[in-house]
Amino acid sequence: MEKLKYLKVNFLDVQQHLNKIFFSIKKVLLEVFKRNDFILGEDVFEFERCFSRYCGYSFAVGLNSGTDALFLSLKALDIGEGDEVIVPVFTFIATANAVSYTGARPVFVDIDEKTYTIDSEKIEKAITKKTKAIIPVHLFGQCANMSVIMKIAKKYRLHVIEDACQAHGAQYYFRNGRKIKTVKAGAIGDVGCFSFYPTKNLGGFGDGGMAVTNKRTLYRRLLQLRDCGRISRYKHAIIGYNSRLDTLQAAGLLVKLNYLDEWNRRRKQIASWYFDLLKDSKVILPCCADYSSHVYHIFAVRVPKRDKVAEFLSSCQIGTAIHYPIPLHLQPAYKFLGYKKGDFPVAEKISQSILSLPMHPFLTKKQVIFVAQKLKEAIDKV
Q1: Model confidence, pTM
Q2: Residue 299, pLDDT above cutoff 90
Q3: Percent of the chain that is helix, strand, coil (3-state, to 5)
């Protein structure tokens, strides 16, 4: 294979997403401007309808962020002061923050060393009389082990709130002998939560989020919570929040939703190139569980001397990122929980070597080859 000398590779390329659909986006945004329905306009309701149908659930509530989707879902389930919610220790801090916002206590559980999602075999040990819910995170584009998690939840009568903020379009496979039931990420628990942050597989032009559910009472509660507790223009049944998805965001996301599956397939193709090019190297590649598809929001590998490798790749104009260098139990913000170094050895181990390579639907094979070549060169040099 030809050795490439220089080729700039961005970690992300949001601009190419926009270039692909620029005229469609321009058209729908102009229509919103003409209607002046910027708050809870018709595009919000249409996007909710289309996204709930895409996920396979009956109801969807557009919100201002994935964080609020988690927070308001917890509130809608009456989780608050004195309660405990189980959360994986290796994820973005917003998952735990959403629990803290309610007054409840996040209880951390270590992760599986292969998939980096919550270790379902360790959940039961973390359950107490105060436990009210589990938040499995479908990390990097792959589902957590929901078959086991749902059995545990049923056994202990716990709510399940799926953090699917990184897994738009991922599929979970429920196996019963030879029969396989396929369900979309976010459409398994009581409620599924999504983020439309610009870097996500389905990203907007700012913050945005969504909660999907099959439970009508939960849906109605979420509608009130997102809109100041409103039941009519000036009548408020509960103390709610201002957490509405903007019409402009919904309009753009409606256009992008049409491309989500195509872009996810492209991500899988790019991942297959990485797998082929790095299979005989010192790189530990992502593990694809047999119970879930992977939509590669993040292509996270593990390498020796991670920081030096990342520095070398940066010098070659290759963008990388680290998801996540500090597990939640070691974050200063959660020092008050009383955890210490060594409590979650798998997460601590993973956080020292994990490195996210460039991943977006518009990478070329030549760029992927260059990244693989330089990554192997970096490992040999540093």
Answers
A1: 0.97
A2: yes
A3: 40, 20, 40
